[in-house]
Amino acid sequence: MRLLAAVDFGLTHESVVATAQALAPALGLEAHLVHVIPDPYFQGLAHRFPDLAPLLREALDRVEARVREALGATGLKARVLRGLPAFAVGGEAARAKLVVLGQTGDDPLERLARGGLARYLLHRGEAPVLLVPPERPLTEVRRIGVGLDESDASLAAFRLALSWKEALGAEVLGLHLVSGEGGCCYPTYLDPKGLSLAEVLEKAEAFLRARYTPLDRLLVTKGEDEADLVELARREKLDLLVLGSKAKRTWRRRLGGTVEAALQRTDLPLLVVPEATVW
């Protein structure tokens, strides 16, 4: 099976390549790099200005040759495609066990381009997507945190985390928030009315330990906003945060509030696991 790493020679390029080089052999996968040259714009120019067509073709051919050379220097298998990046990478991702992308950067254009690709793949929900920041490649995994709740998506994320624990020799830490009514994480799996916070936390922990086993550690704490889970992961100095996603739901809440918060706020490597994932 393949680990597909999409690279764009931007700020996260080296981080994505280093992650692919380290993770693929550890997980028993074959790393493949893919780069997409977005040529529809140039095709439109050539159609509008036919005299530019030969120059544009030559320029694109030279770019493709230089990109192939650069990707070949990584020692990994690589493909250079032309087209719309989201669709081209999406087609490759359908045949991958894991997809690695660079996390969204600070530049507005970079945020639009890379953020759009990540969301497109996450919404399709065909494979787990690992997002790595520019300065934090996932080359060594010692502490994996997984967001837990009562959903099947969370169960899929937990099972993948256990598989990675075995392959990478890591510790798995379960993270769970409990909020009041109207908050992000009201515990619908129990009846909290009339209970003290301490009693709710105790019952929540018992529920989660029965559902998710084995766990190295479990942290159940009060939190009113999904972003509190990201802060908890940061305080615990995790190497990787794993979250489950229902993916193909209505557009408004398709990925889930916790995944949305993590996409916007985390500076940790983030692995989003579709509910249907079998690792």
The radius of gyration is: 21 Å
User: What is the number of helices?
Assistant: 9
- What is the count of distinct domains? 2
Instruction: Look at the helices and sheets and give the structural class.
Output: alpha/beta
CATH architecture assignment name of the largest domain: 3-Layer(aba) Sandwich
- Percentage of helical residues? 40-55%
The CATH topology of the largest domain corresponds to Rossmann fold
Please summarize the sheet with the most strands. 10 strands, mixed
CATH class of the largest domain: Alpha Beta
- The CATH superfamily of the largest domain is HUPs
Write down the overall mean pLDDT.
90
Percent range for β-strand residues:
15-25%
**How many strands appear in the DSSP assignment?**
10
Q: What ranges have pLDDT less than 50 throughout 5 or more consecutive residues?
A: 106-113, 249-253
**SSE sequence, one letter per element:** EHEHHEHEHEEHEHEHEHE
Summarize this structure as a short list of keywords or feature phrases.
10 strands, 279 residues, ten-stranded mixed beta sheet, Rossmann fold, 2 domains, 9 helices, alpha/beta
